[in-house]
User: Fold these one by one.
Assistant:
Number 1:
Amino acid sequence: MQHFPIFLSVKDQTIVLVGGGEAALAKLRLLTKTEARIVVYATEPHADLVRLDAEGKIKLVNREFDYGDARGARRVYAATEDELIDARIVAIAHDDGVLANVVDNLALSDFITPAIVDRDPVTVAIGTEGAAPVLARAIKADLEERLPSNLGMLARLGKAFRHAADALPMGRKRRDFWADYYFNEGPHVAARGEDAVNDTLGALLDKHIMSGEEAGRVDLVGAGPGDPELLTLKARKALDKADVVIYDRLVAPEILELARREAIMINAGKEGFGASTAQDDINAMIVEHALDGHHVVRLKAGDPTVFGRLDEEIEAIEAAGIAYAIVPGITAASAAVAQIGQSLTKRERNASVRLLTGHDMKGFCDHDWRTLARDGEVAAIYMGKRAARFVQGRLLMHGASPETPVTIIENASRADSRVIATTLGELEPTMTTADLKGPAITFYGLAPRHAAKAIQSISRKEASQ
Ligand code: SAH
């Protein structure tokens, strides 16, 4: 981020705009929405500027902008549409100790003006650091459509009611009141006008004061394989409401970003072998926060019901008498198989598929190798990096063909994903050579639909190393 977004206080402050033509007028349309004092310097002012001056909306100064003119101003905008003159304006502004912006000139500007969606006092600012104004405009148009036009009124009346709402204890209860207002009751009555909204605020407050203490709850949520777009809507809603998020090491940072900003984020990161936070401690932490009345989101990679030690957590939650729900997620096998363009099951090839783990707490896991070794069987092997040689040895020993396709997918669904197509005979040393850093799933019995492409992507990677 090269530019940091801020909302600058401009009430009763001076903003200087230099220029008398179309560019200056365009900037003014935005600036006159603020409560700033606007001073415009123009040698040949457009008729509209003269009118705005007469209406008292701006102060027009009919001469060149010069040293000392910006002193004490909050910001200077240069909009003369002449690069040399604009550059001089910036120099003067700096000399006066004020930051300057040159319209449509990122290089000369100290700050940039975002695209704005105005539902005053709700303001959405959109910036692309000058990379794609078209994109900013498209996002703006999208938001303009989505945000109800009376949102500004709801926010204004809500703001005036803040003091009254302080009657509710800070935290959960107060937040629930506001959520009820902005997302349920408020939008319903907004069309009936300000009085109706004010009545609703009062009635809602009474209702929330009367309602008892909310009990805590736990959502056991699948975060999916990494791509935030593969989150379920339910998972997003849970993250939106969470007071506490307890997440695993494999949960992608982009997904953690989606949690409610005030939520307490706790890393319960488990490493592949052993645990950095013991399971009992994680169970205790979940229960403790929920008993405090919090909405706890226990966020697990993929689907929480697949190799997630979910049952141990549920037992602890049930023993404490806490309400809970499981929100399924997309498991790594589903994301990975989609990436290689295959199906987990296929008519006349395999009528069942196994989800295996390479190892458990006690070490490498034994499975029904004899059945798996039969032609056409498919298995998705989780946590299979270190177990690769063991799995390979067992399957070959039970008669599987060394030619059986095997595909390793690292970081499925993420931007840095790698697909490595190999065979059972070559699984090791391929796994070791690949030196995988991210989580990986190994498909036994599946090759990428476009094998050539997958192999190409590895050799390109190797060539660049
Ligand atoms: N509950 C998770 C699995 C947890 S076990 C799920 O449903 O996906 C952890 C293992 O999941 C990792 O060792 C790896 O084998 C697999 N895994 C998780 N995310 C992955 C990803 N993005 N790409 C490939 N494998 C992944």
Number 2:
Amino acid sequence: MPTLLPGSVDTAGQRATLGVLGGGQLGRMFVHAAQRLGYFTAVLEPDAKSPAGLVSHHHIQTAYDDLAGLAELARLCQAVTTEFENVPAQALQTLAQTRPVAPSAAVVGIAQNRIEEKAHFAACADVSGVTCAPYAVLETPADLQAVLDERADLLPGILKTARMGYDGKGQVRVKTTAELAAAWAELAGVACVLEKMLPLTAECSVLVARGWDGQVVSFAPQRNVHIDGILAVTHAYAGNMPSALAERARAAAVSIAQHLGYVGVLCVEFFVVEDGSEHGGLVVNEMAPRPHNSGHYTIDACDASQFDLQVHAMAGLPLPQPRQHSPAIMLNLLGDVWFGADGQRQEPDWLGVLRLPGTHLHLYGKEQARPGRKMGHLTITGPDVASVKTVARRAAELLGLPGLDSI
Ligand code: ATP
Ligand code: MG
């Protein structure tokens, strides 16, 4: 991959342009980071009013697998990335015939399928030092029967569709063999994994960026609080989790990225479980082949954000080791914030929130607020952890956010 210099113009007068498949909020923040460095941007996204399409120089409004749309993206851009792991891997493959694509279709394909993803985690467990939760693959009625007969140890468990799950969608919690059989039938017998329900004491994630040349940098692990399967709060500061555990998670994520030959930004999610040891055991949950919601705090609390590193990695620029300059807490803003206790639509108290010190409001430009829909996030930074927590609690109260007791 030749380096694509920021702000450059080629002999035909074409501006250095970076492309992204998908127009959601991750694409929007990628576009912001790329434009800050002087790149032009192109977004391929069917939705006319998508968060990223609204702010990009070019918006190609076609389906992700539309060949004419993909050809236009390749014509406009010198390198392409994705912001959405459910973009068809075939689309990335098509683009890769003529343009550098990072991450590659092959690794996105692995991350898109929980069965392949878990096989990858198992394949590098010796190097990464972590395994995933006990699980079984359900692809055929015979697989179901075998699990019903022989894997009572996986119950209570979570049945997860192998493909297209996010924010807890495509998941059913099952306690008994009867519930398992009913849940799989309800999911129309699509390929699934049944995962044992683990007693989690915490969850964390690690962001890694790796360049074409194999250079790797990473952020310290952030601790995440999920409510109803959706990320609610991210704690990003020294002491957010025991340091031995944090070091293990960071090293494991780096080795998982290296083992994949990954190029771009990768997020690896972990569970911390009670296992009788002093700090608990670390279990790898899943990975996202892109920047991640739990890394949004890096925009306001670090000298290089996860989106800056995504731009650097795909353009072949040096990857700076990011440094966090402020402790931070990130609060997700779901559509629920736009509705009062009576169910009536309301404008959230932004003025009250913005009056508080160290609040950084990010709204993604989505028109329709719906319960559970990610509309924006609020990052709170400050001089020390205690003051960040005080402001975060106050902001959560003003906005009526859940998860107050976790701050
Ligand atoms: P996303 O892509 O938004 O991270 P997802 O829909 O892919 O989420 P998972 O990360 O698999 O789903 O699960 C969502 C949440 O459900 C986890 O963060 C965790 O809180 C809980 N969960 C998932 N699997 C288990 C498990 N085996 N034991 C206990 N809790 C679990
Ligand atoms: Mg997850």
Number 3:
Amino acid sequence: MKHFSIRNRIAFTYIAVTALLIAALFSLIYIVIFQTVYNHLDSDLDAEIQEVYSSIVVLDNAIVYANPNEWNEKEHGLIEVNPTFVQIVDTTGTVAKKTPNLREGALFFSHAISEKSYFDTLLAGAPIRQLQLPIRNPTGRTLAYLVIAIPLQESLIVLKNLRLTLIIGYPIVLIALFFISRFIAGRSIAPINTVIATAEKITKENLDERIVLPQNKDEIYTLAYTINNLLDRLRDVVIREKQFTADASHELRTPLSVIKGTLEVLIRKPREREQYVDKIRYVMNEVDQMSQLVDQLLEFARFESGMVRPSVVEFELNALIGDCVKRMEYASAEKNISLRMLTEEAFVVKADISMTKIIIENILSNAIKYSSNDQSVEVSIGKDSGGVTCTIADHGCGIPQDQLSKIFDRFYRVDESRTSQTAGKGIGLAIVKRLAEIQHLGISIKSTPAVGTTFTMTFV
Ligand code: ADP
């Protein structure tokens, strides 16, 4: 079945159904014509009864032949032209009267047939259609039997020819239909071959190739359109992956060359102890930042891979935020920033605890990072039509309107010169965005440069 093409499959299915239908139709045609022919013969026999009765008189005990000419009519004399054979048999089975065309022969007669009945039989080896019926006197006693017959040969030849035509025509019609339907099926799926040919040409290096859309907006059009869309998305993923690798290498190469340069200068000649301590501290700081970046990249790659599934549970958001605030105490104290939780009422939400923690810590750490010394950061929880909301507001440097949509991109940092003083490589918010997507949390941001930034998470 593996190499049984769609074209042949369609043709075979079609033919299987059609074969049954045509067999039913041909049988019906044969039955109708068969019945018509026999009805016609039988009504001819019936007509002859009338004629015979007009030539005899049925008395109480006998039959009188009133019109002997009727028995010598042309059709009863000649055998060749539509002869009609008539014979009267008495109750003992002896032939009492018969038409001359019977010559020495006699029609088949049976005592067993007591009522009017039609049947096929033979006369001198030739097929005939025969009718036998009793002739009764007025009181109902059978005086004799009337037997009438007409030749069947021609009707049988017609029926035989019809049968032959239908039997020979049946396979011919089916074979013709098979090839026609195979041809039509082949033509209708031809565009699929174009789709296959194009798809085969597309490789990872050649993701710009697209399938030409057919003119008819049918299923094949939808197939081609869907594959093209899939290719668009695949290309985007491949480009993003390449970009990610390039960005990550770049971000790691810069501190590495700084470290290498610093150490090279340091070993060029003997130096004072303070100079060593100073440079080694500098190098250690760079190594710290690199290790932080590597941690973030690994975390990001883990979440991006789609292998991490959120385990959604109900928990009290206030407690989780309390934990995060506590962990940020050291960073906020360093800049004398007051980090306050404004809401006392308890709110329960449904989400993944550890993922939500990473989101809140990233937003909180940014709020502290991008605030000036002695400012404040407020966290509050509330409820609106969309669900429970958690708002983190700072009064720091803010983000220009045109860059708001980009800050969730990997390695994106607003104005590198402004942020160069603060640690970070632009990965934090990309992680936040990914984690929010995984859990179907809403994240929105409002910001005014030099006034502050407000992040709002919505738990549905
Ligand atoms: P980074 O490690 O640079 O902080 P993020 O992805 O966390 O990376 O943030 C991306 C950029 O968005 C930051 O470089 C910063 O310019 C801007 N940003 C994020 N949070 C704030 C905030 N609270 N106030 C001002 N700017 C912010």
Number 4:
Amino acid sequence: MINARAINHLGIAVRSLADQHAFYADVLGARLEGIEEVPEQQVKVAFYTLGEGDHAVRLELLEPTAPTSPIAGFIEKRGEGLHHVAYTVADLPARLAELKAAGVRLIDEQPRNGAHHTRIAFLHPKSTGGVLTEICEDKG
Ligand code: ZN
């Protein structure tokens, strides 16, 4: 059991961060925390936060920066929309080893760099009931 502690964020695939800003900021009232590029994943990421403190929820909007980006492939196949659910865990490498030993299919066998000073790894939707699942840990 990897003992997920919270939903860290929801990942949403979009064609254009700029086009979606009005909905998230002006309609939902979410705060834009920042935009950063993650070259390894060929995405530009905007983080929005709703609510305060322990009840805060983060949304990660993902815009592809190249046609070969996994997010571009996702949008091509399924359109814009919910892309993944990310859970906070402690000691990510140990959790990945446990999952692998338990027969869970991993997309990332080793942690990689995510946005927002995190280390992340994706689990294959075939092992998670069809939901692309990210587990992540703050780098501190
Ligand atoms: Zn994510």
